[in-house]
Protein backbone atom coordinates (compact mmCIF):
# COMPACT_ATOMS: atom_id res chain seq x y z
CA UNK A 1 0.00 0.00 0.00
CA UNK A 2 1.46 3.38 -0.96
CA UNK A 3 1.79 6.18 1.59
CA UNK A 4 0.01 9.45 0.90
CA UNK A 5 -3.41 8.22 -0.20
CA UNK A 6 -6.24 7.01 2.07
CA UNK A 7 -6.83 3.27 2.16
CA UNK A 8 -10.61 3.43 1.83
CA UNK A 9 -11.12 -0.34 1.96
CA UNK A 10 -8.99 -0.94 5.07
CA UNK A 11 -10.85 -3.24 7.46
CA UNK A 12 -10.23 -4.19 11.11
CA UNK A 13 -10.49 -7.92 11.84
CA UNK A 14 -13.59 -8.75 13.90
CA UNK A 15 -12.91 -8.86 17.65
CA UNK A 16 -9.68 -6.82 17.55
CA UNK A 17 -9.43 -3.30 18.95
CA UNK A 18 -8.42 -0.50 16.60
CA UNK A 19 -4.81 0.62 16.98
CA UNK A 20 -2.77 3.60 15.88
CA UNK A 21 -1.27 1.39 13.16
CA UNK A 22 -4.75 0.81 11.75
CA UNK A 23 -5.39 4.54 11.63
CA UNK A 24 -2.08 5.07 9.83
CA UNK A 25 -2.93 2.37 7.27
CA UNK A 26 -6.40 3.77 6.70
CA UNK A 27 -5.11 7.33 6.29
CA UNK A 28 -2.13 6.30 4.17
CA UNK A 29 0.39 7.97 6.48
CA UNK A 30 3.05 6.86 8.94
CA UNK A 31 2.45 5.96 12.58
CA UNK A 32 4.60 8.94 13.61
CA UNK A 33 2.34 11.26 11.63
CA UNK A 34 -0.74 9.91 13.41
CA UNK A 35 1.04 10.43 16.76
CA UNK A 36 1.60 14.09 15.83
CA UNK A 37 -2.10 14.40 15.02
CA UNK A 38 -3.11 12.83 18.35
CA UNK A 39 -0.76 15.22 20.16
CA UNK A 40 -2.52 18.17 18.50
CA UNK A 41 0.53 19.32 16.51
CA UNK A 42 -1.42 20.83 13.64
CA UNK A 43 1.39 23.17 12.69
CA UNK A 44 3.60 20.32 11.46
CA UNK A 45 0.91 18.66 9.33
CA UNK A 46 -0.63 19.85 6.09
CA UNK A 47 -4.33 20.53 5.99
CA UNK A 48 -4.85 17.59 3.64
CA UNK A 49 -2.92 15.17 5.88
CA UNK A 50 -4.79 16.38 8.97
CA UNK A 51 -8.10 15.76 7.19
CA UNK A 52 -7.02 12.25 6.08
CA UNK A 53 -6.17 11.25 9.64
CA UNK A 54 -9.30 12.88 11.04
CA UNK A 55 -11.45 10.94 8.60
CA UNK A 56 -9.63 7.67 9.40
CA UNK A 57 -10.09 8.18 13.14
CA UNK A 58 -13.81 8.82 12.63
CA UNK A 59 -14.30 5.89 10.23
CA UNK A 60 -12.53 3.42 12.52
CA UNK A 61 -14.04 4.91 15.72
CA UNK A 62 -10.53 4.99 17.16
CA UNK A 63 -10.10 5.86 20.82
CA UNK A 64 -6.50 6.33 21.95
CA UNK A 65 -5.43 4.57 25.15
CA UNK A 66 -5.40 7.25 27.81
CA UNK A 67 -3.22 5.11 30.09
CA UNK A 68 -0.64 4.54 27.36
CA UNK A 69 -0.53 8.25 26.54
CA UNK A 70 -0.29 9.17 30.23
CA UNK A 71 2.54 6.73 30.83
CA UNK A 72 4.45 8.23 27.92
CA UNK A 73 4.05 11.64 29.55
CA UNK A 74 4.99 10.34 33.00
CA UNK A 75 1.56 10.85 34.65
CA UNK A 76 -1.44 8.55 34.65
CA UNK A 77 -3.82 10.87 36.55
CA UNK A 78 -5.02 7.63 38.14
CA UNK A 79 -5.74 7.17 41.86
CA UNK A 80 -6.28 3.70 43.29
CA UNK A 81 -8.86 3.03 46.00
CA UNK A 82 -9.10 -0.32 47.80
CA UNK A 83 -12.01 -0.86 50.19
CA UNK A 84 -12.62 -3.74 52.59
CA UNK A 85 -16.26 -4.20 51.58
CA UNK A 86 -17.71 -2.49 48.53
CA UNK A 87 -21.24 -3.53 49.60
CA UNK A 88 -20.95 -1.66 52.92
CA UNK A 89 -23.18 1.45 52.85
CA UNK A 90 -20.29 3.41 54.39
CA UNK A 91 -17.99 2.53 51.49
CA UNK A 92 -20.62 3.48 48.91
CA UNK A 93 -21.27 6.87 50.51
CA UNK A 94 -17.57 7.71 50.91
CA UNK A 95 -16.90 6.63 47.33
CA UNK A 96 -19.38 9.21 46.04
CA UNK A 97 -17.50 12.05 47.71
CA UNK A 98 -14.11 10.70 46.64
CA UNK A 99 -15.17 10.24 43.03
CA UNK A 100 -16.65 13.73 42.79
CA UNK A 101 -13.47 15.30 44.21
CA UNK A 102 -11.26 13.29 41.84
CA UNK A 103 -13.32 14.47 38.89
CA UNK A 104 -13.02 18.10 39.99
CA UNK A 105 -9.25 17.70 40.23
CA UNK A 106 -8.90 15.95 36.86
CA UNK A 107 -8.12 12.48 38.20
CA UNK A 108 -9.72 9.09 37.65
CA UNK A 109 -10.50 6.71 40.51
CA UNK A 110 -9.80 2.98 40.16
CA UNK A 111 -11.94 1.15 42.75
CA UNK A 112 -11.04 -2.33 44.03
CA UNK A 113 -12.74 -4.52 46.64
CA UNK A 114 -10.65 -6.72 48.94
CA UNK A 115 -13.70 -8.39 50.45
CA UNK A 116 -12.05 -8.24 53.87
CA UNK A 117 -9.24 -10.55 52.73
CA UNK A 118 -5.66 -9.39 53.50
CA UNK A 119 -4.39 -11.85 50.87
CA UNK A 120 -6.62 -10.37 48.16
CA UNK A 121 -5.65 -6.91 49.36
CA UNK A 122 -1.99 -7.66 48.68
CA UNK A 123 -2.81 -8.87 45.15
CA UNK A 124 -4.85 -5.75 44.46
CA UNK A 125 -2.04 -3.49 45.66
CA UNK A 126 0.38 -5.25 43.33
CA UNK A 127 -2.04 -4.88 40.44
CA UNK A 128 -2.56 -1.16 41.07
CA UNK A 129 1.19 -0.60 41.17
CA UNK A 130 1.40 -2.18 37.72
CA UNK A 131 -1.08 0.42 36.47
CA UNK A 132 1.22 3.17 37.72
CA UNK A 133 -1.27 4.81 40.07
CA UNK A 134 -0.14 8.20 41.35
CA UNK A 135 -1.65 7.71 44.80
CA UNK A 136 -3.62 5.22 46.88
CA UNK A 137 -6.65 5.44 49.18
CA UNK A 138 -6.76 2.34 51.37
CA UNK A 139 -9.53 1.04 53.60
CA UNK A 140 -7.60 -1.80 55.25
CA UNK A 141 -8.99 -5.33 55.04
CA UNK A 142 -8.18 -6.19 58.64
CA UNK A 143 -5.52 -8.35 60.35
CA UNK A 144 -2.27 -8.33 58.41
CA UNK A 145 -2.36 -4.62 57.71
CA UNK A 146 1.16 -4.29 59.06
CA UNK A 147 2.36 -5.77 55.76
CA UNK A 148 0.99 -2.84 53.76
CA UNK A 149 3.99 -0.51 54.28
CA UNK A 150 6.28 -3.23 52.94
CA UNK A 151 4.12 -3.70 49.84
CA UNK A 152 4.02 -0.04 48.78
CA UNK A 153 6.83 2.01 47.21
CA UNK A 154 8.25 4.56 49.64
CA UNK A 155 7.48 7.43 47.25
CA UNK A 156 3.83 6.52 46.66
CA UNK A 157 1.40 8.79 48.55
CA UNK A 158 -1.04 6.69 50.59
CA UNK A 159 -3.98 7.83 52.72
CA UNK A 160 -5.68 5.37 55.05
CA UNK A 161 -9.47 5.58 55.23
CA UNK A 162 -11.49 4.73 58.37
CA UNK A 163 -8.99 2.10 59.54
CA UNK A 164 -5.48 3.07 60.56
CA UNK A 165 -2.24 1.31 61.45
CA UNK A 166 -0.69 1.56 64.94
CA UNK A 167 2.34 3.31 63.49
CA UNK A 168 3.49 4.20 60.02
CA UNK A 169 4.14 6.84 57.45
CA UNK A 170 0.61 7.27 56.07
CA UNK A 171 -1.98 10.02 56.41
CA UNK A 172 -5.36 9.06 57.85
CA UNK A 173 -8.96 10.26 57.41
CA UNK A 174 -11.74 8.95 59.63
CA UNK A 175 -14.12 9.42 62.52
CA UNK A 176 -13.57 10.06 66.23
CA UNK A 177 -15.00 6.63 67.05
CA UNK A 178 -14.39 6.73 70.79
CA UNK A 179 -16.31 10.00 71.17
CA UNK A 180 -19.13 8.87 68.86
CA UNK A 181 -19.64 5.59 70.70
CA UNK A 182 -19.47 7.38 74.03
CA UNK A 183 -22.27 9.71 72.91
CA UNK A 184 -24.45 6.80 71.79
CA UNK A 185 -23.93 4.97 75.09
CA UNK A 186 -24.60 8.03 77.24
CA UNK A 187 -27.79 8.68 75.27
CA UNK A 188 -29.13 5.23 76.16
CA UNK A 189 -28.07 5.50 79.80
CA UNK A 190 -29.69 8.93 80.01
CA UNK A 191 -32.94 7.41 78.71
CA UNK A 192 -32.99 4.86 81.51
CA UNK A 193 -31.39 1.79 79.94
CA UNK A 194 -29.19 -0.09 82.41
CA UNK A 195 -28.31 -3.32 80.60
CA UNK A 196 -26.39 -2.56 77.40
CA UNK A 197 -24.66 -4.63 74.75
CA UNK A 198 -22.47 -3.54 71.84
CA UNK A 199 -22.87 -5.76 68.78
CA UNK A 200 -19.83 -5.75 66.49
CA UNK A 201 -18.05 -7.86 63.95
CA UNK A 202 -14.79 -9.43 65.27
CA UNK A 203 -12.61 -6.65 66.64
CA UNK A 204 -9.14 -8.12 66.15
CA UNK A 205 -6.96 -6.19 63.77
CA UNK A 206 -9.61 -3.61 62.78
CA UNK A 207 -8.90 -0.27 64.44
CA UNK A 208 -12.34 1.24 63.94
CA UNK A 209 -14.04 -1.68 65.73
CA UNK A 210 -11.48 -1.65 68.54
CA UNK A 211 -12.00 2.08 69.08
CA UNK A 212 -15.78 1.75 69.16
CA UNK A 213 -15.47 -1.07 71.66
CA UNK A 214 -13.21 1.10 73.83
CA UNK A 215 -15.60 4.04 73.68
CA UNK A 216 -18.47 1.78 74.74
CA UNK A 217 -16.57 0.24 77.66
CA UNK A 218 -15.42 3.63 78.94
CA UNK A 219 -18.93 5.10 78.82
CA UNK A 220 -20.52 2.07 80.52
CA UNK A 221 -17.90 2.12 83.26
CA UNK A 222 -18.44 5.84 83.86
CA UNK A 223 -22.21 5.30 84.09
CA UNK A 224 -21.88 2.38 86.47
CA UNK A 225 -24.28 0.17 84.53
CA UNK A 226 -24.01 -3.27 82.96
CA UNK A 227 -22.45 -3.55 79.51
CA UNK A 228 -20.78 -6.16 77.32
CA UNK A 229 -19.19 -6.28 73.89
CA UNK A 230 -20.48 -9.15 71.75
CA UNK A 231 -18.46 -10.04 68.65
CA UNK A 232 -20.62 -11.60 65.94
CA UNK A 233 -19.40 -13.28 62.77
CA UNK A 234 -22.03 -12.16 60.28
CA UNK A 235 -20.94 -14.86 57.84
CA UNK A 236 -22.42 -17.48 60.17
CA UNK A 237 -26.13 -17.93 59.61
CA UNK A 238 -28.14 -17.36 62.77
CA UNK A 239 -25.20 -15.88 64.71
CA UNK A 240 -26.90 -12.54 65.31
CA UNK A 241 -30.17 -14.17 66.39
CA UNK A 242 -28.30 -16.39 68.84
CA UNK A 243 -26.47 -13.39 70.32
CA UNK A 244 -29.70 -11.45 70.85
CA UNK A 245 -31.56 -14.45 72.28
CA UNK A 246 -28.75 -15.03 74.79
CA UNK A 247 -28.78 -11.35 75.79
CA UNK A 248 -32.54 -11.31 76.32
CA UNK A 249 -32.40 -14.51 78.39
CA UNK A 250 -29.79 -13.07 80.77
CA UNK A 251 -30.38 -11.74 84.29
CA UNK A 252 -32.80 -8.82 84.55
CA UNK A 253 -30.58 -5.83 85.25
CA UNK A 254 -33.06 -3.25 84.02
CA UNK A 255 -34.24 -2.04 80.60
CA UNK A 256 -32.13 -3.52 77.82
CA UNK A 257 -30.57 -1.80 74.79
CA UNK A 258 -28.07 -2.64 72.07
CA UNK A 259 -25.74 -0.54 69.96
CA UNK A 260 -24.89 -1.86 66.50
CA UNK A 261 -21.30 -0.95 65.63
CA UNK A 262 -21.79 -0.46 61.87
CA UNK A 263 -24.45 -0.05 59.22
CA UNK A 264 -24.27 -3.71 58.26
CA UNK A 265 -24.53 -4.81 61.89
CA UNK A 266 -27.55 -2.52 62.29
CA UNK A 267 -29.28 -4.25 59.40
CA UNK A 268 -28.56 -7.72 60.77
CA UNK A 269 -29.73 -6.65 64.23
CA UNK A 270 -33.10 -5.45 62.95
CA UNK A 271 -33.55 -8.62 60.89
CA UNK A 272 -32.78 -10.82 63.90
CA UNK A 273 -35.15 -8.86 66.13
CA UNK A 274 -37.97 -9.35 63.65
CA UNK A 275 -37.25 -13.07 63.47
CA UNK A 276 -37.30 -13.31 67.28
CA UNK A 277 -40.46 -11.22 67.59
CA UNK A 278 -38.74 -8.53 69.65
CA UNK A 279 -40.42 -5.12 69.78
CA UNK A 280 -38.31 -1.99 69.37
CA UNK A 281 -37.94 -0.31 71.82
CA UNK A 282 -40.51 -2.08 74.04
CA UNK A 283 -38.40 -5.22 74.42
CA UNK A 284 -35.06 -3.86 73.25
CA UNK A 285 -33.89 -0.34 72.47
CA UNK A 286 -31.53 0.11 69.51
CA UNK A 287 -28.93 2.63 68.39
CA UNK A 288 -27.27 1.98 65.04
CA UNK A 289 -24.03 3.23 63.56
CA UNK A 290 -24.25 5.02 60.20
CA UNK A 291 -27.28 6.89 58.92
CA UNK A 292 -28.89 4.60 56.33
CA UNK A 293 -31.69 5.46 53.91
CA UNK A 294 -34.10 3.14 55.69
CA UNK A 295 -33.21 4.19 59.25
CA UNK A 296 -36.29 6.38 59.58
CA UNK A 297 -38.60 3.78 58.04
CA UNK A 298 -38.12 0.75 60.30
CA UNK A 299 -40.38 0.46 63.35
CA UNK A 300 -40.50 3.79 65.19
CA UNK A 301 -37.36 4.88 63.35
CA UNK A 302 -33.83 3.87 64.33
CA UNK A 303 -31.62 6.21 66.33
CA UNK A 304 -28.21 6.40 64.65
CA UNK A 305 -24.75 7.88 64.82
CA UNK A 306 -24.44 9.60 61.44
CA UNK A 307 -21.06 9.97 59.81
CA UNK A 308 -20.36 12.80 57.32
CA UNK A 309 -19.48 10.18 54.73
CA UNK A 310 -19.57 12.41 51.65
CA UNK A 311 -17.28 14.94 53.33
CA UNK A 312 -14.97 12.14 54.42
CA UNK A 313 -14.70 11.03 50.78
CA UNK A 314 -13.79 14.55 49.71
CA UNK A 315 -11.25 14.90 52.53
CA UNK A 316 -9.45 11.65 51.76
CA UNK A 317 -8.86 12.73 48.14
CA UNK A 318 -7.77 16.22 49.16
CA UNK A 319 -5.32 14.73 51.64
CA UNK A 320 -3.87 12.57 48.87
CA UNK A 321 -3.66 15.47 46.40
CA UNK A 322 -1.83 17.54 49.03
CA UNK A 323 0.77 14.80 49.24
CA UNK A 324 1.08 14.69 45.46
CA UNK A 325 1.64 18.43 45.41
CA UNK A 326 4.33 18.50 48.08
CA UNK A 327 6.00 15.08 47.69
CA UNK A 328 6.67 15.31 51.40
CA UNK A 329 6.21 11.85 52.89
CA UNK A 330 7.18 12.75 56.48
CA UNK A 331 4.98 13.73 59.42
CA UNK A 332 1.76 11.77 58.77
CA UNK A 333 -1.35 13.89 59.18
CA UNK A 334 -4.80 12.89 60.44
CA UNK A 335 -8.16 14.40 59.52
CA UNK A 336 -10.75 13.43 62.12
CA UNK A 337 -14.48 14.01 61.76
CA UNK A 338 -17.20 14.10 64.43
CA UNK A 339 -20.27 11.86 64.44
CA UNK A 340 -23.80 13.21 64.93
CA UNK A 341 -26.50 11.55 67.03
CA UNK A 342 -29.83 11.34 65.17
CA UNK A 343 -32.49 10.50 67.74
CA UNK A 344 -35.58 8.49 66.78
CA UNK A 345 -38.10 6.23 68.48
CA UNK A 346 -35.90 3.09 68.78
CA UNK A 347 -34.16 4.61 71.81
CA UNK A 348 -37.14 6.36 73.42
CA UNK A 349 -36.93 6.74 77.24
CA UNK A 350 -37.39 3.34 78.89
CA UNK A 351 -40.51 4.38 80.79
CA UNK A 352 -42.22 5.55 77.61
CA UNK A 353 -40.86 2.83 75.29
CA UNK A 354 -43.99 0.70 75.40
CA UNK A 355 -46.06 3.63 74.12
CA UNK A 356 -43.90 4.30 71.04
CA UNK A 357 -45.70 3.58 67.79
CA UNK A 358 -44.15 2.44 64.53
CA UNK A 359 -43.29 5.14 62.00
CA UNK A 360 -46.29 6.11 59.90
CA UNK A 361 -48.97 5.22 62.47
CA UNK A 362 -51.24 7.97 63.73
Fold and architecture overview:
The protein is of the alpha/beta class. The protein has three domains: 1-64, 434 Repressor (Amino-terminal Domain) (Orthogonal Bundle), CATH 1.10.260; 76-175 and 309-337, Rossmann fold (3-Layer(aba) Sandwich); 177-307 and 341-355, Rossmann fold (3-Layer(aba) Sandwich). 40% of the residues lie in helices and 16% in strands. The protein is built from twelve helices and twelve strands. A six-stranded parallel beta sheet has the order 2-1-3-4-5-11, with helices on both faces. Strands 7-6-8-9-10-12 form a six-stranded mixed beta sheet, with helices on both faces. Helix 7 (148-151) links the parallel strand 3 (135-138) and strand 4 (158-161). Mean pLDDT is 86; it is low at 1-8 and 355-362.
Report the order of strands and helices.
HHHHEHEHEHEEHEHEHEHEEHEE
Categorize the overall geometry.
elongated
CATH architecture of the largest domain: 3-Layer(aba) Sandwich
The pLDDT mean sits at 86
CATH class of the largest domain: Alpha Beta
User: What is the CATH topology classification name of the largest domain?
Assistant: Rossmann fold
Report the structural category: alpha/beta
Give me the count of strands: 12
Query: CATH homologous superfamily of the largest domain - what is it?
Result: Response regulator
Number of helices: 12
Number of domain units: 3
Strand-helix topology:
Blueprint: H1 20-27, H2 31-38, H3 47-60, H4 66-73, E1 78-83, H5 89-105, E2 108-113, H6 118-130, E3 135-138, H7 148-151, E4 158-161, E5 171-175, H8 177-190, E6 195-200, H9 207-223, E7 226-231, H10 239-248, E8 256-260, H11 263-276, E9 285-289, E10 303-306, H12 309-326, E11 334-337, E12 340-342
